[in-house]
Amino acid sequence: MKYYNYQVTFSEIPDEVTLCINLSNCPIHCPDCHSKFLWEDVGTELTKQELYRLLDANSACTCLCLMGGDADYDGLAKIVGYYCDWTTERGKWMNIAVYSGRKDVQDMIDHGASYWVQMLTYLKVGPYIKELGGLDKETTNQRLYRMSRMKLEGDPDQLLKLAEYKYKDGQIWSIQGFDYTYKFWR
pTM score, two decimals? Predict the structure, then answer.
């Protein structure tokens, strides 16, 4: 898995100072994509050492956001695992987010994403459709979810079932979260 660039932002995840890493080789190819250069397999390999270097250099951030990764969910799972190792080793917790161009969370699961989705703090799904607008428009098809972990966080009446994941042993887990998209609306 390769990344093209990174930046620190205040706008990608509400209420967070976010280290955004743009992953390349995107298979979604939204017609009105603003980052078509990320469709190619370009950039620097995002190894454990490289991720640690970026995290250490930007440790004042409160969130890591991996922008993309839909071409290699196994690679993305490794990166999420490396991130969890980094937080454990440093004794510092940062939230973690993934931006996906898949239409919804179930679409990610159906294309090979798995258990690691439950490890995320935030997950944005939905391809960019110009006529519907981005996350800042109430008409958008894109959604940002705050994922629910084992401990229930937020109003249980607002908890949404986002997808089901079937483990190898046949057990089915429900992936749940809260819709935070409204936090972008102006």
Answer: 0.92
Quickly state the pLDDT bin for 4 (edges 50, 70, 90).
Answer: very high
> Could you tell me the residue range of the domain that residue 32 belongs to?
2-184
Residue 169 burial by Cβ neighbours in a 10 Å radius (0-12, 13-18, 19+) = exposed
Query: How far apart (Å, rounded) are the C-alpha atoms in residues 101 and 104?
Result: 8
Of the candidates 119, 139, 121, 117, which has an alpha carbon nearest to the alpha carbon of residue 129?
A: 139
Rg (CA), the chain: 16
Q: How sure is the predictor about 164, in pLDDT bands with cuts at 50, 70 and 90? A: confident
Number of domains the chain is built from: 1
| Token pair in block for residue 63 | 């969130």
Q: Which residue, among 77, 70, 119, 73, has the nearest Cα to 99 in the 3D structure?
A: 70
Q: How confident is the model at residue 150 (pLDDT cuts 50, 70, 90)?
A: very low
- CB-based contacts of 160, cutoff 8 Å, min separation 6: 145, 176, 177, 178, 179
pLDDT single digits (tens) 165-178: 887 788 888 888 99
The residue length of the chain stands at: 186
Alpha-carbon distances, residue 159 vs 3, 42, 122, 149, 177 (angstroms): 33, 38, 14, 11, 6
Closest CA to 94 of 125, 121, 67: 121
Tokens linked to 59: 């440790």
